[in-house]
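Slide 14.
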Amino acid sequence: MFNYCSIEILKTKRTIIRKLVWIFPLLVSIITFLFFASTGYVVQSIINQWSFIWVNLFLALEIGLIDRHERNSTDYKMILSSPDDLFKYELGRILHDVLLSLITTCTLGILVILLSFLMPMKVSLGACLLALFGIFAATLWEIPLYSWLSRVTNLYVSVGLAFAGSLIGIWVDNLSLGKLFPFTWSAIMPVSLIQMHVNGLLVEDTDKIPNNSWTLLASLILFIVLSGLSAAVFKKQVVKNA
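Slide 15: predicted structure.
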């Protein structure tokens, strides 16, 4: 599986896919800074904005572009003719997507550290960095979903789902069963760490913020399930189309 991940890493060399891992978080940071500089909560706002919309759009875009690159270069023919275990091959592709997501999170973390020297911080830097990596973990489940969806449809459907899921997640967040909707997990996970609600309002002393660390385990379980399903479907489709 790790060998297949290495193959995918080589495929994306010198492509826009590699550049997006630092361009995307940089643009998000700049835009958020321009809009929220006057509030004094820039770092918290960057994490908040990233958690409920930008991370979802980034994953859909990045994975969709990887699929488009594969279609344009070989149309999956090299994979189709591969004698290797195609189930493991798809798992390697998913692992590659996880790695790109982790690098993007680290890039955003570096930007947050730099901004912490320029802007006043209402919460600790450690809490902000922990929130970012929590968001990374809470969105793991999206990676195999977009890997499958981009392959059977296209890039635009994946991005459309990410955008719709983000909007619905905001709407159902306050409902009693709303937190069961996976698109809410990345948004509610960092609330207690950055002391900011999903709607951008600061957490008051009287507010009761539940511990949403359960979203990390839920995301991991769903990630494992969806990865297995995506790999199984990929193997069947490849055998069928070969």
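Speaker note: DSSP finds eleven helices and no strands in the chain.
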